[in-house]
Amino acid sequence: MLGQFTRQLDPENLLSVANLSDAVWVAYVKLVPLSDDELQALKSECEDGPHRRLFAHNYAWSYTCIYRPNTEAEIRRELEPLRDTDFSRIYWETASGDRTRYPSKIGRMSTNEWVEDPYRVCDRLADESWREFARKGIDPLRVAVDYAHKIGLEFHASYRTAGFHFPVLEEEWTTGGLYDQHPEWRGRDRQGRPTPRLSYAYPEVRRFVISLLKESAEYPIDGVCILYNRRPPLLDYEPPLVEVFRQKFGKDPRRLEERDPRWLAYRASYLTQFMREVRAAMDDVARKQGRKKHPEVSAIVMSSEAENLYFAMDVETWVREGLIDTLIPYTSVKRLDPADAKFFLKITQGTQCKMELNLMPRQLSPEEYRARDHRLYNAGVENLFLRDTNGRSNFSRSWTVLRRLGHRDAIDAWVAADRASRHRTKK
What we know:
This protein is an alpha/beta fold. Helix content is 41%, strand content 14%. The chain has helices at 11-18, 36-46, 62-67, 72-77, 121-136, 140-150, 178-181, 203-216, 239-249, 261-289, 305-310, 315-320, 338-348, 366-378, 397-402, 408-426; strands spanning 54-58, 87-96, 99-100, 108-109, 154-160, 186-188, 194-198, 223-227, 296-301, 326-329, 354-358, 383-386. α8 packs parallel to α10 and α14 packs across α16. The relative contact order is 0.10.
């Protein structure tokens, strides 16, 4: 790559010139070779080290409705910006409910025939893209796994747990799937009405999800990730939950306050059981494949202890029992603060479980990225997760900073210089 042998071109300089007049054009770019010292410094940056503490996420579907890719090169393009950065891991979404983003023997690949509405351009382009992949025999997951490893990234296949039924206007993507085929597995609210999700209280639902996770682990992935942060809860007031709780406590949970500690703890035991099944499945994969180490298990959860328990996630038990290797709290935009990390730092301290804090919102200025990064590192956070990194890697000033946010010493130096500058300005 040119960037490995020449000084990096500052896109801001080009933009500042180009914006002077519509008549200004870039005539040529002069490439200046790096000195030996600069080349060695660049090579050092590309090597593994403590600075590679960032973890990326790619939805792995949105690019099909934006660019309509139909070649392997266009799939690799989604990963290329992460080369030679502080990112060491990619979380790549491989399935949502029973829809998969690879040729599956169990689920349904993301293609449809219903996209005829001329105004639904995104859906039409995505459908055409996936159809072209299938026609050409391209396996997007295989391409992504192989290229991620080629550029030095761990690859973690990610799964959306609540993706069996989409809301209007996207419901066509899930029509005819498991949600329609098995209404008896649907969730139930306090009034007994069906919810737009399948319930993980039913062993059949959990077994189906486990089968997809094991299928994705047939690829040479480094781990799987369970995405709980979209459209919870996965458990509500299903008849089996209500009946067993009534037998155990002598009370109908539908008549209790919805945050009753007994009900929350009982309901959470079902997702804990599911996480035990996920861990056992990955152990089984390791035995069958002769791996020395099982595929790691990550979980993207909610932003606080109380919020997780409300949505049936006892993350402290998951960590204590060694059911997950990485815990990713999905902190919100407004509440991103070091205080959010305290509970998660406490339960993971001294364990084998990493804690990655999600850095939001998606688009921040370079100064905001550095300032938030600095606060979180000083609070004890070691790793940062960036959801939808594919929407951030736009080669702007922010991306130039973001791709180097793993360099704590550089962040500290920047904060110190900024404070000194502001101090001089006040004088």
